[in-house]
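Worked Example 4.2. Consider the chain below.
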Amino acid sequence: MHKSKSELEELAAPIFEDLGVKTLFATADCQFFLLQSRANLHAGKKLQVITITKQETEIVDENAGDSGAADGLGSGKDSADGSSSEAATLSVKALTEKIAEETDLKLLTNLLHDEVIGLNRKTAVEAIEKRIAITTDMRKGDNNG
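Applying the procedure from the previous section yields the following structure tokens:
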């Protein structure tokens, strides 16, 4: 089922909240991506990629401060438990096993960010993106049921 931009913006609001990013890339089939290149790959020639910013999805609160990092991804370097920077030291197999049951979208986003700007291993990026999609789908199911 294809969605309009306004419907996608509405669906994106909790994703922005969970991930702490400022921009998402969506396709009309309700798939959200952190990286435009991944959205383009998914969309192919059949779907349009729609850029959604956090600002488009939130009600302006003049009393709210800027809580995000400059790049919108949080620190992306060393989280409190050091797990985000740990991705570079793990093999793809070990990384995949480590995130298999992970449901912390902020941690997964930081892992993805670190992987992309670091080693940028295709299989590792795909594994993290898949886990983010599964976790996001689980949260959508919790909100609908």
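The chain has seven helices and three strands. Helices lie at 5-19, 36-43, 54-57, 83-86, 92-99, 105-117, 122-144. Compare this with Example 4.1 before moving on.
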